[in-house]
Amino acid sequence: MIAGIETGGTKIICAVAEEATPSRLVEVIEFPTGAPDGAGERIRAFLGERGRRVDAVGVASFGPLDLDPSSPGRGRITATTKPGWAGTSLAELIGPHRSMTLVSDVTGAAIGESAYGAASGVSDVAYVTVGTGIGVGAILSGTPVSGVGHPEMGHLPVRRHPDDDFPGVCPFHGDCVEGLASGPAMAARWSRSTRALGADHARAVQIESSYLGQLLATVLYSLVPQRIVLGGGVLKIEGMLTGARAAMRREVNGALGAGHPSTEVDAFVVAPALGDHSGVLGALHLARNGAFARTDSLAAAG
Amino acid sequence: MIAGIETGGTKIICAVAEEATPSRLVEVIEFPTGAPDGAGERIRAFLGERGRRVDAVGVASFGPLDLDPSSPGRGRITATTKPGWAGTSLAELIGPHRSMTLVSDVTGAAIGESAYGAASGVSDVAYVTVGTGIGVGAILSGTPVSGVGHPEMGHLPVRRHPDDDFPGVCPFHGDCVEGLASGPAMAARWSRSTRALGADHARAVQIESSYLGQLLATVLYSLVPQRIVLGGGVLKIEGMLTGARAAMRREVNGALGAGHPSTEVDAFVVAPALGDHSGVLGALHLARNGAFARTDSLAAAG
């Protein structure tokens, strides 16, 4: 069997499938991320449950990750602010005697949506999530952008909306796009849950759209996808997807030419099709198709 | 023999070399870009001069370019504001019965600097030019980002420097990074050539650095290069490279971790090593190694 594991900032999802049918989940569990020791125990128990034999594991993890094959820290989480997780080796979480392919959580989601979801058949895809954090994963010419590093676009500088004086929540920058437009940033700006914006709903969507428009335009200018899959908790706010699309179109303003696929904005920026399973399905896809390193050597290298 | 051609916004450079030694230029000419008809005549005359036989041609052209293999406009310049050039087929400029590989001018420069210059031996490279325009080319895991499209990062939204009220020169956006920080933008802001900033030199470098810092940080976050080659006319201003490096470091502010190669900013952001020939050498490298389409079929397709 093969396994896919998504270690997200909030929860971990583990799934197993037969190698021939990676998108048909035989069993799936999820649990809160917690501390790395407890997470590793639950992951390893799941992989060995009822005597099943899982040899190849795809992992889509929050980061930043060290993916550099020449680095002694390869396969580890680096500068995270998540308590206890900086320096964690994903290979150690998986346990010895297995093959592992590691990508960022959003790269995994891009792979999942590209293989089985809203971007199937498209060779150049970006997956953008706006939730607890803001992240971007990309596939260019069919290959994930995941060589020695992976995109870290949550920290993009953005222009402020003129009506927004919220200082931002990013510990590094204050008002980068994650600092101004992530779910926690919205909740702090409006002093309430993003599910209960009430009378401020229209203004909140307007301000948020201005930041997402800049983010999407920057993804378009830099990674040149043919489609953007836009997901995450913030996109569950009514009118948010429509607002983000319109803001991206205003932001680009025809600069890429009238024939560019981004001008068909409803077909260009789409919602994910795999719900909460984009990442874990991407991880399973990698488990079948990825280039593997042995967990033993990765854990020892660190 | 093989040929490399850089069709820049200002001038065109053509070079021929033996296939075994693409970086040793046998003959090179350059002339002002002018109109496409005249440019095509000079290019075709050069390729056929003194009876030499040039079969494979690499082309690095200003854009935006249609590179999509499935597009009827493949191999053409699309939404340029350069008079006469919108819709131009590069294959027609080269002439029939030849093989052509086409990339954007800055992708060509990235390939040249990666193969023979300031980024040789580095698998993940971005080339950033700040001159008449602002452009970014990228190589990820050894492969140019040039599948169905190419980066168009001149249009990035940027935060204004607080002391800058210049409206910007971009016809699409006014104050995108090209509108505020290209050579023509600087010349218009200070009402003089960037070679004669005089008493405004220090302020000009400070304001320009703030924009280049955002540009470089965005390149870093999105394309995750291991090195950035930063060239173009604006970088010839004294103190500009140092200012841009410092601004990128302030902009990132440690968000990618203490071990990230970008923290060694002098080694991470470097000047080009090939002078004016980055693009044409990249085009020659492509002429030897690229995936070719026949000029006949490309010209006919449009």
TrEMBL record, chains A, B:
<dbReference type="InterPro" id="IPR051804">
    <property type="entry name" value="Carb_Metab_Reg_Kinase/Isom"/>
</dbReference>
<dbReference type="InterPro" id="IPR043129">
    <property type="entry name" value="ATPase_NBD"/>
</dbReference>
<dbReference type="InterPro" id="IPR000600">
    <property type="entry name" value="ROK"/>
</dbReference>
<keyword id="KW-0862">Zinc</keyword>
<protein>
    <recommendedName>
        <fullName>fructokinase</fullName>
        <ecNumber>2.7.1.4</ecNumber>
    </recommendedName>
</protein>
<dbReference type="InterPro" id="IPR049874">
    <property type="entry name" value="ROK_cs"/>
</dbReference>
<dbReference type="Pfam" id="PF00480">
    <property type="entry name" value="ROK"/>
</dbReference>
<keyword id="KW-0479">Metal-binding</keyword>
<comment type="similarity">
    <text>Belongs to the ROK (NagC/XylR) family.</text>
</comment>
<keyword id="KW-0460">Magnesium</keyword>
